[in-house]
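Deliverable D5.2: sample structural annotation.
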Amino acid sequence: MANPPLPLVRIGGTPREMGLELGRARKDSIRHMITNVQAFLEETYGQIRLSWPEAILQAHKYLPFAQELTPRYVEELRFAAEGADVSFDDLMVLNCLEAITTDALHLLGCTTFALTEEHTAEGRVMIGHNEDWLPADESDVFLLHAEPDGEPGYLAMTYGALVPNIGFNAAGICQCCDSVYPTDVRIGVPRVFVSRAVLAARTISSAITAAIAPHRAAGYNHVLVHSSGEVYNVEVSARHFAMMYAQAGMLVHTNHYLSRRMARLENDSQHLIGSRVRYFRATRLLRRSHRHDLNSLQGILRDHVNYPNSICSHEAIDDNPLDRQKTVCSLIVDLNEKQMHAAWGAPCQNEYHTYRLEV
């Protein structure tokens, strides 16, 4: 059965006020995600060798770095835990999961693209993103409309109690993140805290600077877009980064490094063949037209070539639990209209609904 429109939660104010509001509004979802991840670690213990108490100990190693770089977001998370009446330690595990599992989760399905005004029917700057994650967490996806004191308001997608990082802000900056797999990972600032700081940027240069923050534990790929049509791709690892600029008004990224510099750091490139297939497929579909609109972009995000590891990704039930994933949310952002069109779950099975940033 099709999912309804995504829940929209509105919060604002100080970190304490925002955290408490979020925790109270999403209490059941937060608890559900904790239970899901606990069950996941139990199911995969033979491969990862990580119990829940051990995961908490590992997450504690990352906390001082997050506290130093992004104290505001750590405080929000602490009060979210209070609002949901759960342990802050549990929420830190969720937000450090990729790091503490040493990237054993091969979540390789995310696809992101950006188009400038030359490629869209109405001359708008538009971004598409399919978010692939653990299937058990699909029910916990929601949208967050936030008005933090001292920072630009933003509209973002997240799930459970993960720090939000995929969305756009009132300064006209959009960020989409794709997991990448470098070999230089270390104890440092967890990726979600780094990428959350990007959503607070007021200029494209400050967004790029935030993405390459010092003492980071690893890195995402950051597709960073400004409403003026400036489109950058920033591939990041723990110690290195590479920047690329949209060519001919178009940019595509999936889960492998594109720059030669970063490709040398890639872990297990053979496992990333599916990512390369999606990259070339999305590029080909986008090049078919210079008049893309909402309908054509939805069609690309619903594409099933190379199913189930397609742009619109589906779970294979017999997968290794570490490889199990699906598209849990699909987004199209119109930066000029300050709108996000979002489908909850696989976009081939669910309708897009429109949400607006109202700040």
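Annotation notes: Residues 52-69 form the longest helix (18 residues). The two ends are 34 Å apart (CA to CA).
The annotation will be released with the project's public dataset once the embargo ends.
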